Amino acid sequence: MQAKKIAAALVAGFTALTLSACGNGIAGGGSGSGDGAKTTFRLAFNQTEQHPQFKAAEELGKKLEEATDGRYSIEVFANETLGSQNEVVQNVSDGTVDMMYIGGPVLESFNQDFIVFNLPYVFDSQKAQAKVFADDAVMGDLKASIEGSKKITVLGALHAGIRNVYNAKQPIKSPADMANLKIRVQQSDSQVAMIKDMGGVASPMGQGEVYTALQSGVLDGAENNETVYNSLKHDEVAKYYSYTRHLMIPDYLIMSSTVLEGMPEADRKALLDLIPATVESANTGFLEFAAESKKASEATGAVFNDDVDTAAFKAATADLVKSSINNPVRQALYDAVQKANAES
Ligand code: GCU
Fold first, then answer.
1. What is the pTM (predicted TM-score) of this model?
2. Which of the residues 26, 311, 320, 321 could staple to 20 if both were Cys, CB 3.0 to 4.6 A apart?
């Protein structure tokens, strides 16, 4: 894994050097515009090429190239080859990686208010989630909050499935079944607190380390949507997938603000105009991909359990939700979610 990452980073660096030496392209950093140069943005992704977010990003790259007469394009680096989300987000912030998809909880370290959408049982439906994310009056300030300070522009918020607990030992029906189970979570305090309240023991780590940790017994399980469970082969080493439906966490497509600001205005506008269709395509593709992933996992012998006392899990985590909504910004975001839930 490490060797693979280093090799990919070397290849990426080599490409950048070669192209810039030829004077017709620079990968990363967003420079090279305005003098006939071509710029290839590097977009980091921690999942496979089959994922609809990968396909949507490739499509975005093609359309961007057309719209800017070849001045800008995108190369998508899948499978965590540029590093774990936790690592890469620092590079986006300092402008050495141009773009990435990032899970919501990882952004909490830049602004804790992102927590609202990462709490258990907050969204009732994907429709409600989409409604909130499409509303700039709700999302605008949150998105802009990390632009000045961290130089990160949030281009879009995407649906990233519904997360459920899986493990190697048994089906999970109630919080009692989680006792002593070591469950991987994304790297944020909210996720650690959530698993504790659900009855288990949380272990935060990057996605790429999870398979080996499950295989070696360092972890008993993890929590994620069906696509990760199947495409990263967690179904081979943690056969019981239980529908706790505890989270509907967004992914965000983010970009270095420095790089974005460095684009000529018309090209920047062209890029921003392409984002809604990119989000739409990734979201639509996701549902189908999740259904296919479940079938594929079942074919490998994974056991899907829908006999889960979700009300008990919701009650167990209610205090975490309440104590996390502790300032007016979060309250306003939370109220917007409740409104969308009621209307959807
Ligand atoms: C999902 C999500 C990713 C996230 C991953 C994880 O796949 O889409 O953004 O990184 O879960 O649990 O790490």
1. 0.91
2. 26
